[in-house]
């Protein structure tokens, strides 16, 4: 089922959580709402779910306006950051809950419920934990149960609010890949909220980057990462170095005294050399070198005294024989230029 | 020996704390309690049975435990309702109402008894309209139940209130998004969550009511066989210098209370233990068990 969000505005007192937001989510896609905390992403998700209601604007499912329907009537699956499992019920009963509360006429028989729950337990790989209580499970297992519980009612849309937010790094990665696989199998239109850009870029078909109650950019992970529409998006989707500069005849110059343009360069797009080359370079002194990991991370201080982060390959690092407190030249390979007002 | 029980912990003072607890419990609870049993043991089996199974004593047990159970059930239902209203809604003078709940704790029981009697007497504010529809409140078993309900009011409210306040709003949202209606959400999600606390409150209200003396004797009328509660019977025996008889009835009451509270506690274990949270309920059980014993001397 496709979701169309039209002109949604939501205020909490004086604070505008969402400001005239439009968003299209095509049928069967996995879409990430990405943004810093306070950007309105969770509020937007809750409005789509019917747990919160907008001040103005509409939400449509498959072109049908469902703005006035409650969460119960919308048939959405919602997964909460802190699982919100029913503690007094076993894993089995948690998953069966949505089927058991159906009106008698539509309620499946006991055997049908059992079959459905067992199918979902297989899907989340917790067949042996059916008789356990949520308190006896790990965080990752609880979140899988919460997901199975949401899927049990065969929702038209699956909404996940920071689903991996309270899990540790390793479980997070596992679960993230698992969610992607699950979506490839089930193909249910899904929206998940996250503040972790890596997560959004890895899992989602499309990413909507949000900031201060507005959507800055919507596109494929490749789009938003390689062709950011605004300085905010560039800044948010990965580590950056920020310089000031000017543009003359299509050539970019780094110039700290200039104020017309903001220049962003990702750490891996800076090169360290002993000789200058090209029109754009600056001098710096290496301060700290961390060679543990696939990339060598170098912290240096520029000639005007600002810190700069550079990432280079192990091969390049060994070829250079770089040491601490060495004077070097830094040459940007690719610069993203934005006008000071914000949008390029 | 202590080494075996001692658990490794960063907090020092296990030995001292345990020693003090044992000493304190012995001094305050076990010694007076065992004195009751010791005094009773001066009776022969035949005498003991004659005292505790006399028709008058039996009638008083029925009234004391019956009225206490009814009162505790009323408090269970309305206590949950009051806690719900106080947690979920905001209304003018909410704080005032909230502090009113504790009044039955703070009021001297005799004052409560006299006030209740005045209000429910045939010419009182509530007694007169009740009388006109043929209900006699004061000096009847109904009056005893009213008094025992009054003094047990705070327990369920105060045990359920914090649990209800801590309940995540997300639980209700999850239930709603899964298609549950309001009533289903209440009975299937919220009620099971507050049940252990409600049972704790019920147990405490019941235990308090069983041992209650001061507030009941004024409204009860104290007619033997009809409106005489067991604590009053014990006092009567004491006033007749029949100490062994008084302690014999006390022992009987203690045993019945203990069995009832044990049963309730097992019920509670069953309802909360599944979540692996028994430990916090243990103390409530202990407090509730001892209450009838301590409460006996209260009115003297």
Describe the structure.
Chain A is an alpha+beta fold and 344 residues long. Chain A is 28% helix and 34% strand. In chain A, the strands form four sheets. A six-stranded mixed β-sheet of chain A has the order 6-7-8-3-9-10, sandwiched between helices. In chain A, α3 (91-100) crosses α4 (110-123), α3 (91-100) runs parallel beside α5 and α4 (110-123) crosses α5. The model of chain A has no long low-confidence stretch (mean pLDDT 89). With 300 residues, chain B is an all-alpha fold. Chain B has a domain at 71-227: Orthogonal Bundle (MetI-like fold). Chain B has 15 helices and no strands. Chain B is globular and about 65 Å long. The two termini of chain B are 42 Å apart. Residues 276-300 of chain B have low confidence and may be disordered.
Give a nutshell description of this structure.
The complex is a heterodimer of chains A (344) and B (300). The longest helix of chain A is centred in the middle third of the chain and has 18 residues, at 169-186.
The CATH architecture of the domain at 71-227 in chain B: Orthogonal Bundle
**What is the number of helical segments of chain B per DSSP (H or I, 4+ residues)?**
15
Q: Percent range for helical residues of chain A?
A: 25-40%
Q: Uncertain regions of chain B: pLDDT < 50 for 5+ in a row? A: 276-300
| Contiguous uncertain segments of 5+ residues of chain A | none
Q: Class of the domain at 71-227 in chain B, according to the CATH hierarchy?
A: Mainly Alpha
- Helix count of chain A equals 10
The name CATH uses for the topology of the domain at 71-227 in chain B is MetI-like fold
Radius of gyration of chain B: 22 Å
The chain-level mean pLDDT of chain A equals 89
Average pLDDT score of chain B: 84
For the record, give the distance between the C-alpha atoms at the N and C termini of chain A, rounded to a whole number.
35 Å
| Largest interchain contact | A-B, 30 and 20 residues
Under CATH, the homologous superfamily of the domain at 71-227 in chain B reads: MetI-like
Proportion of beta-strand residues of chain A: 25-35%
Indicate the radius of gyration of chain A in whole angstroms.
25 Å
Largest sheet of chain A: 6 strands, mixed
How many strands appear in the DSSP assignment of chain B?
0
Globally, the shape of chain B reads globular
């Amino acid at each position: 089922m496709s979701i169309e969000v039209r002109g949604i505005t939501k205020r909490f007192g004086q604070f505008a959580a969402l400001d005239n937001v439009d968003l299209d989510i095509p049928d069967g896609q996995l879409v990430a709402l990405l943004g810093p905390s306070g950007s309105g992403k969770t509020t937007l998700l809750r409005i789509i779910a019917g747990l919160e209601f907008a001040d103005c604007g509409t939400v449509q499912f498959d072109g049908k306006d469902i703005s006035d329907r409650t969460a119960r009537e919308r048939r959405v699956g919602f997964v909460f950051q802190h699982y919100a499992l029913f503690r007094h019920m076993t894993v089995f009963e948690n998953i069966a809950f949505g089927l058991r509360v159906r009106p008698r006429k539509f309620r499946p028989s006991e055997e049908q419920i059992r079959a459905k729950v067992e199918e979902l337990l297989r899907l989340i790989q917790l067949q042996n934990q059916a008789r356990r209580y949520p308190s006896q499970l790990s965080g990752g297992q609880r979140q899988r149960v919460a997901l199975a519980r949401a899927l049990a009612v065969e929702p038209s849309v699956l909404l996940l609010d920071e689903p991996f937010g309270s899990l540790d790094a390793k479980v997070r990665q596992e679960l993230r890949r698992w969610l992607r696989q699950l979506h490839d199998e089930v193909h249910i239109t899904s929206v998940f909220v996250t503040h972790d850009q890596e997560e959004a870029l890895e899992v989602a078909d499309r990413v909507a980057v949000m900031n201060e109650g507005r959507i800055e950019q919507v596109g494929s992970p490749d789009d938003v990462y390689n062709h950011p529409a605004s300085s905010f998006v560039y800044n948010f989707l990965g580590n950056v170095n920020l310089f000031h500069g000017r543009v003359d005849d299509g050539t970019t110059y780094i110039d700290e005294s200039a104020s017309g343009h903001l220049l962003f360069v990702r750490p891996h797009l800076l090169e360290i050399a002993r000789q200058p080359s090209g029109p754009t370079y600056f001098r710096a002194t290496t301060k700290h070198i961390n060679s543990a990991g696939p990339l060598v991370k170098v912290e240096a201080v520029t000639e005007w005294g600002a810190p700069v982060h550079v990432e280079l390959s192990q091969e390049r690092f060994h070829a250079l024989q770089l040491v601490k407190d060495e004077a070097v030249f830094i040459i940007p390979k690719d610069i993203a230029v934005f006008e000071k007002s914000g949008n390029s | 020996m202590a080494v075996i029980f001692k658990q490794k912990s960063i907090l020092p003072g296990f030995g001292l704390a345990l020693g003090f607890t044992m000493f304190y419990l012995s001094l305050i609870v076990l010694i007076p309690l065992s004195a009751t049993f010791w005094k009773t043991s001066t009776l022969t089996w035949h005498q003991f049975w004659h005292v505790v199974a006399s028709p008058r004593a039996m009638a008083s047990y029925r009234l004391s435990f019956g009225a206490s159970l009814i009162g505790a059930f009323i408090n269970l239902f309305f206590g949950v309702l009051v806690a719900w209203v106080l947690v979920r809604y905001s209304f003018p003078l909410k704080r005032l109402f909230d502090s009113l709940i504790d009044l039955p704790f703070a009021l001297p029981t005799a004052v409560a008894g006299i006030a209740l009697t005045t209000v429910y007497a045939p010419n009182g504010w509530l007694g007169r309209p009740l009388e006109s529809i043929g209900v006699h409140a004061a000096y009847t078993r109904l009056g005893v139940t009213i008094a025992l309900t009054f003094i047990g009011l705070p327990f369920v409210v105060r045990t359920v209130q914090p649990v209800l306040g801590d309940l995540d709003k997300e639980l209700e949202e999850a239930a709603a998004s899964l298609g549950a209606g309001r009533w289903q959400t209440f009975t299937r999600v919220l009620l099971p969550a507050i049940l252990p606390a409600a049972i704790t409150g019920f147990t405490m209200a019941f235990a308090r009511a069983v041992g209650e003396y001061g507030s009941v004797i004024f409204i009860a009328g104290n007619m033997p066989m009809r409106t005489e509660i067991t604590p009053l019977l014990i006092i009567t025996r004491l006033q007749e210098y029949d100490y062994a008889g008084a302690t014999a009835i006390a022992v009987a009451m203690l045993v019945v209370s203990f069995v009832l509270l044990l049963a309730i506690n097992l019920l509670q274990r069953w309802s909360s233990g599944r979540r692996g949270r028994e430990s916090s309920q243990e103390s409530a059980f202990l407090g509730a068990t001892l209450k009838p014993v301590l409460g006996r001397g209260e009115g003297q």
